[in-house]
């Protein structure tokens, strides 16, 4: 599909924007909202990354911290809260990024 670019006064190929819409299980997110602090923000960031990575298990990087919009300390506390609540499992290999698995995510 071609569109007219007014700045360059020429036709350019329009690249459709990819949209990301994924469902989040209501019971899962409801459980996360009852947890303290920034936990729900981290939970939503993990749900977003699940859709991007197309897997329930993925490594969490700086991207997850940025998406959750909270400090590193709050982020790690939220991971612990989600893990204690049984919503995620976290593997923390030394010197590597943590690997998160979303649990009961149907």
Descriptive overview:
With 106 residues, this protein is α+β, with helices and mostly antiparallel strands. 41% of the residues lie in helices and 18% in strands. It is built from four helices and five strands; from the N terminus they run ββααβααββ. The strands form two sheets. Strands 3-5-4 form a three-stranded antiparallel sheet. The protein has a two-stranded antiparallel sheet with strand order 1-2. β4 and β5 form a beta hairpin. α2 packs across α3 (62-68) and α2 (39-53) packs across α4.
Judged by helices, strands and strand pairing, the structural class is: alpha+beta
Count helical runs. 4
What's the helix-strand series?
A: EEHHEHHEE
Largest sheet: 3 strands, antiparallel
**Strand line-up in the sheet with most strands:** 3-5-4
Terminus-to-terminus distance: 38 Å
Which residue ranges are poorly predicted, with pLDDT under 50 across at least 5 consecutive positions?
Answer: none
> Kindly state the mean pLDDT as a whole number?
88
Number of strands: 5
Tell me roughly what share of residues is in helical segments. Answer: 40-55%
Backbone CA Rg = 18 Å
Fraction in beta strands: 15-25%
- Give the overall shape: elongated
């Amino acid at each position: 599909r071609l569109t007219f670019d007014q700045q360059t006064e020429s036709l350019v190929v329009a690249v459709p924007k990819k949209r990301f819409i994924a469902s989040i299980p209501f019971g899962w997110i409801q459980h996360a909202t009852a947890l303290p602090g920034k936990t729900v923000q981290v939970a939503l960031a993990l749900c977003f990354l699940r859709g991007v990575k197309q897997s329930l298990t993925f490594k969490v990087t700086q991207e997850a911290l940025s998406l959750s919009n909270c400090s590193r300390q709050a982020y790690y506390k939220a991971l612990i809260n989600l893990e204690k609540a049984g919503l995620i499992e976290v593997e923390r290999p030394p010197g590597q990024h943590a690997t998160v698995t979303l649990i009961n995510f149907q």
